[in-house]
# Entry
Amino acid sequence: MNVGIIGSGGREHAICYMLKKSKKVSKIFCFPGNAGTDLIAQNVNLDPDNFSEIEKHCVQNNIKMLVVGPEKPLVKGIVNHFKDKSIKVFGPDMISSKLEGSKIFTKKICQKYNIPTSKFKICESLNETIEYLKNSYFPLVIKADGLASGKGVYVCENFNDAKKASEEIFNGKFGLAEQILIEEFLDGEEMSYFIVTDGKNYKFFGSAQDHKRVGEGDTGKNTGGMGCYSPSRLLSDNLELKIKKKIIEPTLNAIDEYGGVYKGFLYIGLMIKDDSPFLIEFNVRMGDPECQTILPTLKTDLMDILLSCCDGTLNQLKINFSKSKSICIVLCSKGYPEKFENNIEIKGLEQLNLLENQNIFHAGTLKTKAGIVSKGGRVLNFVSTSEDFTKCRDETINLIKKLNWKKGFFRRDIGHKVIKT
Ligand code: AMP
Ligand code: GLY
# Structure
């Protein structure tokens, strides 16, 4: 079967790499892909939000299934666009995607179904917000309701910070804002838990902990993710049972009641306190860089998983992961997440000798006549799997050092919570 992948990051390169290994996959097209996917698939320079153009290309090239990497096309309704057409789409439909597309929608589900999450207040104007903040305890968290590329969340230490955040949101920094979400600040340690679902059944799809801050020791500005380790050190049978019974199952039931059809990955962002899970957020896709970290440990054919979700037969499939640990370190452009240069040549990538347990997934890269150049803040993902986190990290860092890209930087302490040095 010919398959299309929507997106251009490290997550999509990892998905492409896994699908390439499947005997069931003939040709892969990436909309639009990056220099990494270009090596193993055909990149098609189309906007991932232009569903009609993508559809035309699918028809012309006999693409029978689309896998959607990022959230934006899902929230904009790509699954609904392809409904009743002869192209399967792996991803949740528009109603289901509101779990990520509207934080207030999700909070209301939590309230209705008693799902553990932070206490919250929804305000409908700047005045109402400021009055509420005057009588609040700090720290607290202010969030824009809709998609904001990971930037619409403010952890506020005092009234002035909170007022400034609310003004930015109501002034339209993240698009038209008619409501704002104010949340109690949750203490604890974060964990990401993943499932895959066909709309009726769901299966575990890995756990991880990512490092969002730019600086070592988890300091500095927030980024899209500087690296990640999997599995999360927090996962236990007892915790997993609570995550399933108190969070996942009520949410999937709610989506079903609302008439949504959820076929895809669901990312459950959690705060864990005293072995109890609290929902921070849902993402209606795999995480990035969690996907790059987890997929190399997947033993089941990814195409079988995607097909069984599209066909509603996930209950008949066993999904196996190896027992390996995995670490992903992201090589970024110097200056990220603030100002950085693009179009910097990356020499020597093809000459790097990867061990059998290693992968390099491209993120912000572009193939040009002059060679591969950077195009974005997060440029390359280096992943190593092994029986031991220390070994994973040492081998990953050695590989990055061999590349020796002078315009890049990376965190050397990814996985510090599971590596004692
Ligand atoms: P979100 O986009 O909602 O996941 O928020 C981004 C990040 O902000 C999370 O990964 C947490 O680190 C932090 N965060 C969000 N909500 C809370 C909360 N209620 N309490 C503490 N930290 C939070
Ligand atoms: N790693 C965080 C995310 O994918 O949103």
Notes: The mean pLDDT is 96.
